[in-house]
């Protein structure tokens, strides 16, 4: 179903005929209207964070946890230094696919529903209307369920496996303790979601806030990855070079900045 929705987005992109000039302008770095680096704060009793949507996007597309988990997968598959080039190729291909999919979705949505805030699922579903018409809402909701289940399960598996590994226990996907921890993560997520829905908040707002929360643990994982990538005893001649460290350091600064913002937001909400 995920693949079907992605194909529909591609067809919609063709039917919507976005402006090539507009797409190229979108590649120019800039600060969109309503976005600022101001820290989360209260305005007339409401908590506002100008970068909440950015934090949510960062949490879903810039998955430090997935990168961190690659070490476990490589070990589980029994890869050695001989598979280094193959691993680089797989990583590049994976990043290219994710980037392309994200670009298709964002370009299509920006073309079909420009300027509209995604306050509910119905607004988001309008992005599929050029091809599906009135059935866009049904198809989008079914596809959304499939798309949501995919990262939900994957993130739970990552959390369960890394927790088992951190405790010094067998952490393969087939190991019992890893599965137990994965189920525990799923149950905790379900309980938190049920409690959050009882607050009366809009589901879309909860999804955005939930995605943003994932960046809190990013600094520790990003710093660990950067440290391992520079560890001579582990990486040998494949250690990071200066350019890689500069890019990695910049990425670390970004995730630390966003994590601090989200923590401030959480404190304000709890207060």
Give a description of the structure.
Helices cover 71% and strands 2% of the residues. The model has no long low-confidence stretch (mean pLDDT 79). The protein has one domain (2-8, 49-270). It has helices at residues 2-16, 20-26, 52-61, 64-77, 84-112, 121-125, 129-132, 136-166, 176-197, 203-213, 218-229, 232-235, 242-270, and strands at residues 41-43, 46-48. It has a two-stranded antiparallel ribbon with strand order 1-2. It contains 13 helices and two strands, in the order H-H-E-E-H-H-H-H-H-H-H-H-H-H-H. Helix 11 (218-229) runs antiparallel to helix 13 (242-270).
Topology:
Elements: H1 2-16, H2 20-26, E1 41-43, E2 46-48, H3 52-61, H4 64-77, H5 84-112, H6 121-125, H7 129-132, H8 136-166, H9 176-197, H10 203-213, H11 218-229, H12 232-235, H13 242-270
Antiparallel strand pairs: 1-2
Helix pairs in contact: 1-5, 3-10, 4-8, 4-11, 8-9, 11-13
**Order of strands, widest sheet:** 1-2
The biggest beta sheet is recorded as:
2 strands, antiparallel
Distance between the termini: 41 Å
User: What value does the Rg take, in angstroms?
Assistant: 20 Å
The secondary-structure class comes to: mainly alpha
Helix segment count?
Answer: 13
Strand content: under 5%
**How many domains?**
1
Uncertain runs with pLDDT below 50, 5 residues or more?
none
How would the global form be characterised?
globular
What is the helix content? over 70%
């Amino acid at each position: 179903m995920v693949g079907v929705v992605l194909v529909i987005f591609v067809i919609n992109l063709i039917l919507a005929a976005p402006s090539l000039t507009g797409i190229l302008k979108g590649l120019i770095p800039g600060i969109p209207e309503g976005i600022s680096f101001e820290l989360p704060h209260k305005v007339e009793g409401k908590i506002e964070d100008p970068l909440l949507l950015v934090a949510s996007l960062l949490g879903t597309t810039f998955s430090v946890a997935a990168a961190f988990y690659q070490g476990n997968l490589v070990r589980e598959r029994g890869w050695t230094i001989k598979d280094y080039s193959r691993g680089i190729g797989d990583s590049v291909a994976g990043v290219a696919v994710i980037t392309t999919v994200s670009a298709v979705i964002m370009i299509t949505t920006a073309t079909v529903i420009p300027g509209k805030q995604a306050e509910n699922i119905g607004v988001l579903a309008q992005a599929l209307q050029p091809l599906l018409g009135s059935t866009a809402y049904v198809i989008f909701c079914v596809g959304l369920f499939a798309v949501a289940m995919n990262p939900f399960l994957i993130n739970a598996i990552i959390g369960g496996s890394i927790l088992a590994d951190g405790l010094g226990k067998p952490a393969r996907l087939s190991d019992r303790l890893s599965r137990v921890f994965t189920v525990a993560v799923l149950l905790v997520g379900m309980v938190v979601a049920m409690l959050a829905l009882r607050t009366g908040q809009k589901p879309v707002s909860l999804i955005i806030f939930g995605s943003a929360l994932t960046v809190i643990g990013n600094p520790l994982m990003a710093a660990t990855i950067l440290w391992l990538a520079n560890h001579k005893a582990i990486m040998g001649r494949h250690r990071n070079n200066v350019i890689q460290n500069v890019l990695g350091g910049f990425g670390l600064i970004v995730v630390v900045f966003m994590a601090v913002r989200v923590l401030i937001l959480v404190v304000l909400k709890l207060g």
